């Protein structure tokens, strides 16, 4: 699919509103024609026929009415098209977020989240002008000049011919604007993007530049680059502006030629054709229509860059969508199943692979698993893994041997290539303490509630206390309501781990998975974590910890070890 | 408006050009008015004369002067518009150049920690948009109201031919309406722009969280709840966008409507003046047409009000003072810049190069101790390895040596002198610091290496590439060492980028070396090859090498583990 086809497809959902916007645009055009006719008629009656102004009261009132209706049509058109654009963006954004969700953690791991978020915000916003301005104007630009030409024809066909003669030229302008200018436009866009990219590149690398004492050189480089860019783009712009100058020229010359033709006709200098029949009414009417004949086209040309912007954005978004689709197909099969209804939580979904054991076994069991990661093939084989409620199970092994992959599979976030995972109950909720733990840009309270939004304040505070969050939150200006994460107060590794622990306390999840929970901790936090895990186990939850930390070894009831890409039980001598 | 003052003063050197550009805009507008007004006058005059002639009355009308005038206006309008656009865009691009240069120099003066925030923050996302808004300050924000005002004066002058009273009433109405609607756009634009910017930032942040925290959200089963919040913020953002767009469209419609109403009023007034025999028919027609021709110069006023409002918001964001005041600045050093005023000591290459940490404590965020009373001594020429999990404070330790982070208590000494007292430039000149973050620039491979040493010979670069096991890769690139990499160039892998960054450091004749995760992203064989090169290069230099596990560090004299903010034997 081409980006243009993609834009058209997305527009189909709001066809109705786009048509409505175009309709109001056409109505406005018709009002303009009516206004021109009324002015011409008023002038003709008063100036030529000597009618008194009092006799003209009715047409004058109609004229005022028409003039008042025009802004109304304009506003209605704006509202319809703004709404159309808004809906398209809402749909696209929602669909792409669904895609991102269905990619799952494994699929998203390869992507820069910041960049993805930019695509989902800025690139989608860049679609706006195409739907809110360009599309409705396309219809208006096709209809109104035609109506005006026909109206002019009824008044004086030669004058209409002056307009229509330029009509075959209009596709030519459009081609000129369309092809020539579009290419120039695109080149321009690209070089703007490249120059901005280089500038940002230097800003991002400022630390390095300073480290090597090269800031001044970089500044000079930016100035020189901008100057070179100016010279290059001025060469382009001189040509690009010509296309709009051509439209401008025809608009101006049409007025001039028609004015002079009508003037000569009215003086009786032109004795052929319809000229002898010209009156001040028809002459003035046509004169007033002449600029309006070109106006919709000029407006369309002005909105051309909206189209170029949208096409650029569409290309990027299509790329993301395509990637999402292929990866969703190969990588996250469970994802697709579990999340087939977008936004539905795992709570309701119960994938077949993690069904309750028929024999009524209450623990977690994984049998004959083979786990694979995209691009890496099979990374881990598990003959059997058993974890009973109230047990702490330790999985040891050096980093990079597939511990995280195993945890993802146990959480149901990565479907095993073969084998089966049986969950202790139909409750699919899983407490997850990642390495490093995820801290959202929100308050501490919201962070603790992240996994269980329904948690009561009392439960939340009790959990915060047990996990040692209160201890440092007390020193913060707003306590638990202090904003943390990227846009707030930065947390140390230990503090983040305490928040994650509190999150697990609050959540009723029967299974809790921890990835290297004590790797970057201070001694105090380590104690909180070790004690906390004991407490969670005492509540009857199943705890699986991936770690190579000795401190956790003593408290674990069951241990496994990864060796040569296989999980094997460790039996203490 | 004070945020815009520095940018307004940037316009000063271009006074001459801006005047010419403005004059061209005015000529365009004036020609438009002249074309329509004169055409109306002309055909009415010919109609009246034609009617007289047809009635057998001897009448004369000079058709050549007005005819010539019409043709002239038609041509000047087109030509002036063309040159106006070319000329003004040239000025805009000149301003863009100055703006980029100035912004860059200002950012370069930020402290390293503020730079770190800048990298991850929202400012960088909007930096180019903000600069673009400011470069259009004159063309899209300031010039249109001035040109509109002058165009109204031209129309008023034309109206005054018929009636001074009508001219002044129409003129006052138009100026009032234009000013009111322009100001409305400026004021409501400011409020809405601010709301929109924060709605935008909120949505983006929520989305980033949604994607980054997807594992947690999916595991805990709360994706749906959080997705609703994303959708809610999306709704909010679009509502704000719509409000802004609708506001501007309404302003434009009201302005157009007012203009048309004034034109109709002038028409009726002119016709009644004609009926009273005070003016002739041609002038009566010319008057309303002169008003109608104002549509173009006046129509842009709401847009220019909004542009000014946005430019102001951009100027505010670009005010680099703001960067240091973001909430996460807890972590950064108080008032620590690069230079250290008059007390700074010049560091010379011949000086001693031992490193000492004396009970150094660094706190972060909510008061947690990243480094806790840490003591460390690395003697001259010694190579020390430090391992620790990510987030345990390794990079803080490295930044302390570079002088980019100031300890909360205790001090760091390099060559016996407190790092904080050293002259930053000379300290950095003897330092070889491989930061955890790899910064490659879009440019050639050679250019990226030569950032460290502009006059390194090609032979030297090749031997360096060989040491880093990059020679085969570079030789296979289309233009060898002159292959363009980075944005719009060849993509290099993380491991290759890491080695290029390492190569850059190795081009420096540093006496003190800090390598933060030098082998990250490298497979075992490459890591072994590169380790040898690092070890060879480190001979005779004092070095601290940081890694997440022992295998991530080339062989060193001594190895310690950073745990719970302290160094312990491994």
Say which CATH homologous superfamily of the largest domain in chain A is assigned: ABC transporter type 1, transmembrane domain
Radius of gyration of chain A: 35 Å
Low-confidence runs of at least 5 consecutive residues of chain A: 330-359
Number of H- or I-type helical stretches of chain B = 19
Rg from alpha-carbon coordinates of chain B? 34 Å
Count, helices of chain A? 18
Using the coordinates above, name the CATH class of the largest domain in chain A: Mainly Alpha
Spatial arrangement of strands, main beta sheet of chain A = 4-1-2-9-8-3-7-6-5
Q: Summarize the largest interface: chains and residue counts.
A: A-B, 164 and 157 residues
Q: Any idea of the CATH topology of the largest domain in chain A?
A: ABC transporter transmembrane region fold
Number of domains of chain A: 2
Task: Determine the N-to-C terminus distance of chain A.
Answer: 64 Å
- Quaternary structure type: heterodimer
Indicate the structural class of chain A.
alpha/beta
Total tally of structural domains of chain B: 2
Spans of at least 5 consecutive residues with low confidence of chain B = 324-342
Largest sheet of chain A: 9 strands, mixed
State which percent range the strand residues of chain A make up: 5-15%
């Amino acid at each position: 699919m081409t980006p243009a086809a993609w834009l058209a497809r997305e527009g189909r959902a709001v066809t109705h509103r786009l048509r409505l916007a175009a309709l109001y645009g056409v109505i406005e055009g018709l009002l303009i024609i009516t206004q021109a006719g009324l002015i011409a008629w008023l002038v003709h009656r008063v100036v030529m026929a000597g009618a008194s102004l009092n006799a003209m009261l009715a047409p004058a009132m109609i004229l005022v009415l028409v003039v008042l209706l025009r802004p109304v049509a304009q506003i209605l058109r704006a509202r319809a098209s703004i709404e159309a654009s808004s809906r398209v963006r809402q749909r696209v954004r929602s669909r792409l977020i669904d895609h991102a969700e269905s990619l799952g953690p494994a699929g998203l791991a390869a992507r820069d989240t910041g960049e993805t978020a930019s695509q989902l915000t800025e690139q989608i916003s860049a679609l706006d002008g195409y739907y809110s301005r360009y599309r409705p104007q396309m219809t208006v630009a096709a209809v109104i000049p035609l109506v005006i030409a026909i109206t002019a024809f009824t008044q004086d066909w030669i004058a209409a011919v002056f307009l229509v003669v330029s009509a075959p030229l209009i596709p030519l302008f459009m081609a000129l604007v369309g092809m020539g200018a579009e290419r120039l436009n695109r080149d321009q866009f690209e070089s703007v993007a490249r120059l901005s990219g280089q500038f940002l590149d230097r800003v991002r690398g400022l630390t390095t530049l300073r480290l090597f004492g090269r800031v001044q050189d970089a500044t000079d480089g930016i100035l020189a680059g901008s100057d070179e860019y100016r010279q290059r783009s001025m060469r382009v712009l001189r040509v690009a502006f010509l296309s709009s100058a051509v439209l401008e020229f025809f608009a101006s010359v049409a007025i001039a030629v028609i004015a002079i033709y009508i003037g000569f006709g009215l003086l009786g200098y032109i004795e052929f054709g319809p000229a002898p029949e010209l009156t001040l009414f028809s002459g003035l009417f046509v004169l007033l229509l002449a600029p309006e004949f070109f106006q919709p086209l000029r407006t369309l040309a002005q909105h051309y860059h909206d189209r170029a912007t949208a096409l650029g954005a569409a290309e990027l978004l299509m790329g993301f969508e395509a990637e999402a689709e292929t990866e969703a197909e190969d990588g996250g099969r469970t994802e697709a199943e579990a999340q087939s209804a977008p936004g539905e939580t795992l709570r309701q979904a119960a994938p077949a692979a993690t069904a309750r054991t028929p024999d009524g076994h209450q623990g977690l069991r994984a049998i004959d698993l083979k786990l694979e990661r995209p691009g890496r093939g099979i990374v881990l084989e598990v003959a059997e893994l058993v974890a009973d409620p109230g047990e702490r199970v330790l999985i040891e092994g050096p980093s990079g041997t597939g511990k995280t992959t195993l945890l993802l599979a146990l959480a149901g976030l990565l479907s095993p290539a073969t084998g089966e995972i049986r969950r202790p109950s139909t409750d699919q909720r899983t407490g997850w303490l990642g390495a490093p733990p995820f801290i959202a840009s929100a308050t501490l309270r919201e962070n603790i509630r992240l996994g269980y939004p329904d948690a009561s304040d009392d439960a939340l505070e009790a959990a915060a206390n047990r996990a040692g969050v209160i201890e440092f939150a007390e020193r913060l200006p707003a306590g638990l309501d202090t904003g943390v994460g990227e846009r707030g107060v930065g947390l140390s590794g230990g503090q983040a781990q305490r928040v994650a622990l509190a999150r697990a306390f609050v959540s009723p999840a029967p299974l809790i998975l921890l990835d290297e929970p004590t790797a970057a901790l201070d001694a105090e936090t380590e104690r909180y974590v070790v004690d906390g895990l004991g407490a969670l186990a005492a509540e009857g939850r199943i705890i699986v910890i991936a770690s190579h930390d000795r401190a956790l070894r003593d408290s674990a009831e069951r241990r496994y070890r990864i060796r040569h890409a296989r999980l094997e039980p460790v039996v203490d001598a | 408006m004070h945020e815009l003052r520095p940018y307004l003063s940037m316009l000063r050197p271009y006074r001459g050009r801006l005047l010419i550009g403005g004059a061209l805009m005015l000529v365009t507008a004036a020609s438009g008015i002249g074309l329509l007004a004169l055409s109306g006058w002309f055909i009415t005059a010919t109609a009246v004369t034609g009617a007289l002639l047809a009635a057998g009355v001897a009448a004369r009308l000079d058709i050549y002067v007005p005819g010539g005038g019409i043709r002239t206006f038609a041509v000047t309008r087109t030509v002036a518009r063309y040159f106006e656009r070319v000329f003004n865009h040239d000025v805009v691009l000149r301003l863009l150049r100055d703006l980029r240069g100035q912004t860059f120099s200002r950012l370069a003066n930020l402290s390293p920690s503020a730079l770190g925030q800048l990298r991850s923050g929202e400012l960088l996302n909007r930096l180019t948009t903000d600069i673009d808004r400011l470069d259009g300050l004159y063309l899209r924000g300031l010039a249109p109201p001035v040109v509109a005002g002058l165009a109204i004066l031209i129309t008023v002058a034309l109206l005054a031919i018929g009636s001074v009273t009508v001219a002044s009433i129409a003129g006052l109405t138009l100026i009032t309406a234009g000013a009111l609607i322009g100001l409305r756009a400026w004021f409501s634009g400011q409020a809405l722009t601010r709301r929109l910017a924060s709605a935008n930032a909120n949505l983006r942040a929520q989305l980033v969280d949604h994607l980054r925290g997807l594992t947690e959200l999916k595991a805990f089963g709360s994706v749906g709840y959080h997705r609703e919040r994303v959708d809610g913020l999306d709704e909010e953002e679009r509502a704000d966008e719509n409000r802004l767009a609708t506001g501007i469209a309404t302003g434009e419609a009201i302005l157009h409507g007012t203009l048309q109403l004034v034109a109709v009023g002038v028409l009726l007034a002119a016709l009644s003046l004609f009926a009273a025999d005070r003016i002739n028919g041609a002038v009566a027609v010319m008057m309303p047409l002169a008003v109608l021709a104002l549509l173009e110069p006046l129509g842009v006023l709401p847009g220019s009000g909004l542009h000014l409002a946005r430019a102001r918001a951009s100027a505010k964001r670009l005010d680099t003072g703001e960067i240091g005041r973001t909430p996460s600045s807890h972590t950064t050093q108080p008032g620590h810049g690069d230079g250290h005023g008059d007390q700074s000591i010049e560091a010379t290459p011949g000086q001693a190069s031992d490193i000492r940490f004396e009970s150094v404590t660094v706190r972060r965020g909510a008061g947690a101790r990243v480094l806790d009373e840490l003591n460390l001594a690395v003697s001259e020429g010694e190579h020390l390895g430090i391992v620790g999990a990510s987030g345990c404070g390794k990079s803080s330790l490295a930044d302390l040596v570079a002088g980019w982070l100031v300890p909360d208590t205790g001090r760091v000494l390099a060559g016996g002198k407190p790092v904080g007292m050293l002259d930053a430039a000379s300290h950095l000149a003897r330092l070889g610091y491989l930061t955890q973050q790899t910064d490659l620039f879009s440019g050639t491979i050679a250019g990226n290496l030569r950032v460290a040493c502009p006059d390194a010979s090609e032979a030297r670069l090749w031997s360096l590439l060989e040491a880093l096991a990059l020679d085969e890769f570079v030789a296979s690139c289309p233009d060898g060492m002159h292959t363009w990499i980075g944005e719009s160039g060849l993509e290099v892998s993380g491991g290759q980028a890491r080695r290029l960054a390492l190569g850059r450091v190795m081009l420096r004749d540093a006496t003190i070396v800090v390598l933060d995760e030098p082998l990250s992203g490298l497979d075992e064989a490459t890591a072994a090859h590169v380790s040898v090169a690092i070890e060879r290069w480190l001979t005779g230099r004092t070095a601290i090498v940081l890694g997440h596990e022992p295998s991530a560090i080339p062989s060193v004299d001594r190895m310690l583990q950073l745990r719970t903010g302290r160094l312990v034997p491994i």
